[in-house]
Amino acid sequence: MKKSDYDFYYKKFFKENKNEEYKVASYKELKKLFYNMEKGKEIKEVKYKEAKEIARLYALATGLIAMSIHVSYDFIEDKYKNDSIIYSSLLTNISNDIIAIIKLIDNGFEFQANNLFRNLIELLYIFLVMLINKQKRNEYFDSARLENSYSVWQKNTRMSKLNEELSKYEKTILNEELQKKMKEQRTRMYRYYSSCAHNDFSSVCLWCHSLNKEVSSESSSYFKYNLWGIYNYRAKEILEALNRLMWIYSTYFKNIITKPEYFDRRNYVFKENYIFWNSGIMGLLMSEKELISLIIKQADKEF
């Protein structure tokens, strides 16, 4: 923010206008605001520290699995190379999305974190569908070359299509009642976060505030106007939802990779990189254990 720019526009537009309507802050005042936009935040990390650690562990585990596939590319057979690019790319972005959501929450940008959350949902379910459906995997890869990404999205990767494919898979592992509940849960979650991505007025209006649920909803301090991310009272709520989503994803992922007809690690991970793969799988197991422990601890507090 340059003083010369301020002086130019001040002299050009505001200096000659004496009317109150044309008052403008001094350069010193604007500069102070400019540099303080990211300071003075009422960060409540202590309230979501455990949920944050679990989310970071999920990011680490997913990233290690992505790395194990990525660094093995030159050593695997040509017929598996296209698939390996799909898997490593999706997993890398999943891991990065988690870290980005954490950083947004740490800085009070809850609405923006919700928008990225929707992207995370799509990445996770696209990844699972790519694992279980070879034809859709080939069409997804070829879409870049054929420049038909939109038609492939319409056919295979929009949420309704992903839901259909995952429901087919669930018939092999879940009873009918659970199948129905899982499909409804995916639809409900996606619709909720899509309201932020589509900028529905109710979401835009509500999410420019941070809700302090530690006080009564009737209190004036319940709704905190959240310009520039001053507050992050919903951080725990968002991260707990993220961890539940990752728990479901990792449960499906661990199930799928036990079935060679869907995925055989030896086709995608060179033996010298097993350490990354194994560490990633262990990280998923650790994340699950920590999440269950946290849920039990919270339940004990409620009762």
Give structural notes.
By secondary structure, the chain is an all-alpha fold. Helix 5 crosses helix 9. About 70% of the residues lie in helices and about 0% in strands. Strands 1-2 form a two-stranded antiparallel ribbon. The protein has twelve helices and two strands, in the order ααααααααααββαα.
Helix and strand string, N-terminal first? HHHHHHHHHHEEHH
Taking all residues together, what is the mean pLDDT?
91
Can you count the helices?
12
Q: For the terminal residues, how far apart are their CA atoms?
A: 54 Å
Q: Strand percentage, roughly?
A: under 5%
Largest sheet: 2 strands, antiparallel
Amount of helix:
55-70%
The side-by-side strand order for the widest beta sheet comes to 1-2
Q: In brief, what are we looking at here?
A:
With 303 residues, this protein is mostly helical.
What is the fold's blueprint, element by element?
Elements: H1 3-14, H2 27-36, H3 49-70, H4 81-106, H5 110-132, H6 134-146, H7 149-157, H8 159-170, H9 176-197, H10 201-206, E1 209-211, E2 223-225, H11 235-256, H12 274-302
Characteristic terms for this protein:
single chain, 303 residues, mainly alpha, two-stranded antiparallel sheet, 12 helices, 2 strands
